[in-house]
Design brief:
about 15% strand, seven-stranded parallel sheet, six-stranded parallel sheet, single chain, alpha/beta, about 375 residues
Length: about 375
């Protein structure tokens, strides 16, 4: 039987939430029925190429230094589609989406676009291009109900827009206590310390300075609290300077960008997020699957994932300072900390399994092709 050829288009293959879904879903897809191709544009952001190729994907880089250069590559991508016999394109994030729509106009290949963010948070140029081109595709998928509503209310597209909630590979992301202890030893974190962590691209939406502020307040009251902030990004220099300014050099570990984050989740007790806006963050799903108790703002799809005081503890985005009180509650009540760790994993296993997401996605692919 001839395989159905799917081309994923994304700006980079660095370690971001949307990017991480590509190798994770590929591991679970039916590769006897589907053949998966991947095109990305930023050569220096290639951390996930190896894992995609190991899982059976065919990866091509079409080099571009900026967004305008990226758009100019649509003819090259269209030629790739015709040469390889691509049946359907699945694009992720705005600029890859714009290019995919141009390819669709040229080739008529069906295009599915996954929307990861709220329209209100995009730059004016991005908003305009979205409104102008959104109907040049077959289907849009919102990663949360908030994201889907944002598309419907701001763009009012004529095409279908559906919600397909992000998922996590709960078989792969399982707690390994020994691995966590080994990582703590590597970074000189006491085995009995309480580790508060986050895995993020260092962007303004994550509000990592606020995250460090909360951690500073906690360390002043609790000598056994440590921070583990994993990632890199545009604000990396500012974050390092803030760690120094707050005198947290010995209490906050900054291990940088990591392709394998499981050891770091294993070392965490609490996953704390201070984000001002989100879609449905992959790192949060991974943390929950690995039994990290969650304390977070209710940004975007987080409130669809976490039921306050049942699966984790939430506060309003604007009331982020309340996170200190909520973390303190867990620090002062070890039994409740243990309970919320257990509840976090139960929530994703029951409702946010990647197996379920991949099954729905394959059904959508078949509907749009045939």
């Amino acid at each position: 039987m001839k395989k159905i050829k799917i081309l994923h288009i994304i700006k980079s293959l660095g370690r971001g939430g949307a990017e991480m879904l590509l190798p994770e879903t590929l591991d679970l897809h039916n590769q006897e029925k589907f053949e998966f191709h991947y095109i990305y544009f930023l050569p220096w952001k290639n951390q996930l190429v190896e894992s995609i190729e190991k899982a059976g994907g065919k990866v091509t880089c079409v080099p571009a230094n900026n967004n305008l250069q990226l758009l100019s590559k649509y003819k090259q991508v269209a030629e790739y589609c015709e040469k390889e016999g691509i049946d359907l394109i699945h694009a992720h994030l705005p600029w890859a989406g714009f290019l995919a729509r141009l390819v669709h106009k040229k080739t008529k290949i069906p295009v599915i676009y996954t929307e990861h963010n709220m329209q209100e948070r995009y730059h004016l140029i991005t908003k305009y291009l979205n409104k102008f081109t959104y109907n040049w595709q077959s289907l849009a998928l919102g990663v949360s109900n908030d994201v889907t509503y944002s598309v419907l209310s701001n763009i009012k597209p004529k095409i279908d827009v559906k919600t397909l909630l992000n998922g996590v590979n709960t078989h792969k992301f399982k707690r390994d206590k020994e691995q966590g202890l080994a990582l703590r030893k590597k970074y000189h974190i006491p085995p009995d310390a309480v580790v508060i962590g986050n895995v993020a691209v260092f962007r303004f939406q994550k509000r990592l300075k606020e995250w460090l502020y909360i951690l500073k307040q906690l360390t002043e009251k609790k000598p056994n609290v440590y921070g583990l902030l994993v990632g890199a990004g545009p604000l990396e220099k500012e974050i390092k300077e803030e760690v120094s300014r707050l005198g947290l050099e010995k209490r906050v570990i900054l291990p940088g960008l990591q392709t394998d984050v499981k050891p770091f989740f294993n070392a965490m007790d609490i996953f704390m997020m201070t984000s001002s806006f989100e879609g449905l963050p992959i790192a949060l799903l991974e943390a929950m699957s690995m039994e990290c108790a969650v304390v977070s703002t209710d940004a975007g799809g987080i409130k669809e994932l976490i039921r306050d005081e049942k699966d984790g503890l939430l506060c309003k985005v604007e009331n982020w300072k309340e996170l200190e009180e909520k973390v303190n509650y867990l620090l002062n009540n070890p039994n409740n900390l243990a309970l919320f760790k257990k509840k976090a994993r139960e929530r994703v296993v029951q409702n946010f399994s990647l197996d379920n997401m991949v099954g729905q996605l394959e059904e959508i692919y078949l509907q749009k092709i045939f």
